[in-house]
Specification:
The structure holds 2 protein chains of 2 kinds. Chain A has helices at about 50-60, 90-105, 125-135, 145-155, 200-220, 225-245, 275-280, 280-295, 320-330, 340-355, 490-510, 515-530, 540-555, 560-579; strands at about 5-10, 15-20, 25, 35, 40, 50, 65, 80, 85, 115-120, 140-145, 165-170, 175-185, 185-195, 250-260, 265-270, 305-310, 360-365, 370-380, 380-390, 400-405, 415-420, 430-440, 450-455, 460-470, 475-480. By secondary structure, chain A is of the alpha+beta class. In chain A, strands 1, 2, 3, 4, 10 and 11 form a 6-stranded mixed β-sheet that branches. A 5-stranded mixed β-sheet of chain A has the order 17-12-13-14-18. A 4-stranded antiparallel β-sheet of chain A has the order 20-19-22-23, with no helix packed on it. Classes of the chains: A alpha+beta, B mainly alpha.
Chain lengths: ~575, ~110
């Protein structure tokens, strides 16, 4: 039996884990939920909470809960969780560990390897941090693939006809756009662009600011320092955003936000979709600009695009569809589940790496240009930091390029090699991602040849080496952001720390909770209904999904009367569809 | 060194689409995951000859012994310079290379 490699979508807001089972992609559900909110918390018993429970706790104990940790990945920072400081890698590792456990429980065997998706526009440091999070969670990250590419793979793997697709991926914290060609079983990314700090969280923030301003004006109170009230406002803003996806107006109501000078403060406010769209217009414009850049990178015009694939929950914002319609003249594709397709693509790639036969082969590109600086001319003037691009953006991965440079003065013994990421002809305007010295060069005249090799691997990570041509003297590094790097020892310590957190939980959950017979029956019915999803009309499917959600909340809340009612309704639909 | 045409196993007069299909077939058989080097070789071969512009560029810059000035003069004095095929370039190159021994060696290698 092949060793199982799981596919993981580690999102800003939600995460999922998927596998290939009997040739079919399966997103594994935990308690009937395929989506695990990317929330981590520690409850008042000191136990760790991941997912829905942590998300719920956020309202009551925001200081014991962490959300949207992905936005901090790759930064040298720590977050506070119930009085302890954790690196972003550690918080992400907790989510990964939970996903790993969900997969292990389903498969009934240990899992040690994973393919994890990352935004295409994730930098080297962000990718490195993601890999470290995997290691802390006890997962070997066999490959990181780009999220829009994973979505294209999930959607396009079985396409027979040639298709050119634009993948517009707007998640909770990141935005990517990729132009993809699908032909003859090859899913080939032609270009990618994006913004690794733009997402639905920013939309929420706009609404939050709007609410805070409103409270300031009407009640004369600034709630920015009240973490609990702020957490409730955050949730209310998020809910309003969801409502505005379908409705022209949203009411925002929160009672007893807090007591101020003896009086209770209530929040009641109406937000129109048009006001909301005005708030987020700059962000949407930025994404459309990125679409143009990606199209230019692929050397295509809108008429060359056959389909638009929307990925990420934030693409439910109606004005995004409108704007894309205006650009391309047709509606985006909506058959694919924007929340699940990334995890599905990860599972397909995982199966392929594991040696299973799959229909599609993936060719991806780097969205960044990498190069070094040298003495040269900038705007016709002598300039010591001219940017010399070595690997250009939209180059297929993996890639290895070598450039020759010469020493500048006689007897030069040291060369300082700096590697930059960016497009600006002035290297100092680009992002410096690494630097090293090649020392002990021969004592010769100026003109000693030094070759610099940049290699991008399939994970989009950069390896750099420099060599003195005459002697073969070599120096090489793998670029890691020196600031966020975890040494191996630190990784082990982190793993121990996280394991300990989970150990406390395992003791508690070791006691088996036996479900009441009606709950067992309800779960069986849900499984039956889900098996019918592929064969039913969207309308029936939506009805079933609503009922399943109702049933799940009844099970959680222990509402037995209501449960029977919903179960009966769902059973009717299932009976009708099966007959 | 194999030429891009040899790597993709296409004729020098193959159309864009023939070259593309050959490339996709090769990629399907040699995914980047299985053999990095092989994939890179296939991909660079495709980049080198995927359209008329790149084929002309390849033809021009991969005969290092050619007299480029003479070659360009001839190319631009041609009636329809935009439809110069790799094959026509080959002929122009043969005509413009002085050293006959070098020429034979090169020519055999590239058309083998």
């Amino acid at each position: 039996m092949n060793e199982i490699i799981i596919g993981i979508d580690l999102g800003t807001t939600n995460s999922e884990v998927a596998i290939i089972e009997n040739g079919q992609v399966l997103v594994i559900a935990d308690n009937n939920r395929k989506i695990l909110p990317s929330f981590v918390g520690i409850d008042d018993q000191g136990d760790i909470l991941v997912g829905e429970s942590a998300r719920n706790q956020y309202l009551v104990y925001p200081e014991r809960t962490v959300k949207s940790i992905k936005r901090l990945m790759g930064q040298d920072t720590q977050v506070n969780l119930a009085g302890h400081a954790y690196a972003p890698q550690e918080i992400s590792a907790i989510i990964l560990k939970r996903l790993k456990a969900i997969a292990e429980q389903y498969l009934d065997q240990p899992v040690a390897k994973a393919v994890i998706t990352v935004p295409a526009y994730f930098s080297d440091a962000q990718r490195q941090a993601t890999r470290e999070a995997g290691e802390i969670a006890g997962l070997e990250v066999v490959r990181m693939i780009n999220e829009p590419t994973a979505a294209a793979l999930a959607y396009g793997g079985n396409q027979v006809e040639q298709k050119r697709m634009l993948v517009y991926d707007l998640g909770g914290g990141t935005f990517d756009v990729s132009v993809v060609n699908i032909e003859a079983g090859v899913v080939e990314v032609l270009s990618s662009h994006g913004d690794n700090q733009l997402g639905g969280d920013d939309f929420d923030q706009q609404i939050i600011e709007h609410i805070l301003d409103h409270l300031q004006e009407t009640q004369g109170i600034d709630l920015r320092q009240h973490s609990k009230a702020l957490a409730r406002i955050t949730r209310a803003a998020e809910n309003a955003k969801f409502v505005l996806s379908d409705e022209p107006y949203a009411r925002i109501e929160e009672e007893y936000l807090l007591e101020h000078e003896g009086a209770a403060i209530h929040l009641s406010l109406e937000l129109s979709r048009s006001d909301y769209e005005e708030m987020i217009e700059d962000y949407i414009n930025a994404t459309i600009d990125a679409v143009h850049i990606a199209m230019k990178g692929a050397k295509l015009t809108p008429a060359d695009i056959d389909e638009i694939l929307l990925v990420g929950g934030s693409t439910r914002t109606p004005c995004i569809r409108e704007r894309l319609y205006n650009e391309f003249g047709f509606e985006p594709h909506s058959e694919v589940d924007p929340d699940l397709c990334v995890a599905m693509g990860a599972a397909i790639q995982a199966a392929m790496i594991g040696g299973q036969e799959v229909n599609a082969v993936l060719v991806d590109v780097t969205p960044y240009t990498y190069g070094t600086s040298a003495i040269g001319f900038l705007n016709d003037d002598y300039y010591p930091f001219t940017f010399v691009p070595i690997i250009h953006k939209n180059t297929a991965l993996p890639n290895r390029k070598t450039e020759a440079f010469v020493t500048n003065h006689d007897g030069q013994e040291v060369v300082n090699v700096t590697v930059y990421q960016g497009e600006d002809p002035d290297a100092l305007n680009n992002i410096k991602i690494g630097e090293f010295l090649v020392e002990g060069l021969q004592d010769v005249e100026a003109g000693n040849v030094i070759t610099l090799t940049l290699a991008l691997d399939l994970n989009g990570m950069l390896h750099v080496s420099a060599q003195e041509k005459a002697t073969g003297l070599e120096k090489s590094i793998t670029i890691k952001n020196a600031l966020s790097r975890f040494e191996q020892g630190a990784l082990d310590t982190a793993r121990g720390r996280i394991n300990k957190l989970f150990g406390q939980v395992e003791e508690v959950s070791a006691v088996d909770i036996i479900d009441a017979p009606e709950i067992v029956e309800a779960r069986k019915l849900i499984a039956k209904a889900e098996a019918l999803f592929d064969k039913t009309s969207n309308e029936d499917k939506e009805d079933m999904i609503d009922l399943i959600e109702d049933i799940n909340s009844c099970i959680e809340g222990g509402l037995d009367d209501k449960l029977q009612e919903y179960v009966a309704k769902l059973a009717d639909i299932v009976y009708y569809l099966e007959s | 060194m194999k030429t891009p045409y040899e790597i993709l196993e296409v004729a020098e007069l193959a159309t864009d689409n023939e070259i593309k299909q050959a490339y996709l077939q090769k990629v399907k058989l040699n995914p980047p995951d299985r053999d990095n080097e092989k994939f890179q070789q296939i991909h660079s071969a495709y980049e080198a000859i995927k359209n008329v512009t790149s084929r002309e560029k390849y033809a021009l810059f991969n005969y290092p012994e050619a007299d480029f000035d003479a070659l360009l003069d001839q190319a631009f004095s041609a009636v329809q310079p935009s439809i110069i095929s790799a094959d026509y370039f080959d002929k122009l190159l043969l005509a413009s290379i002085d050293d006959k021994t070098l020429l034979t060696g090169n020519h055999e290698k590239t058309t083998a």
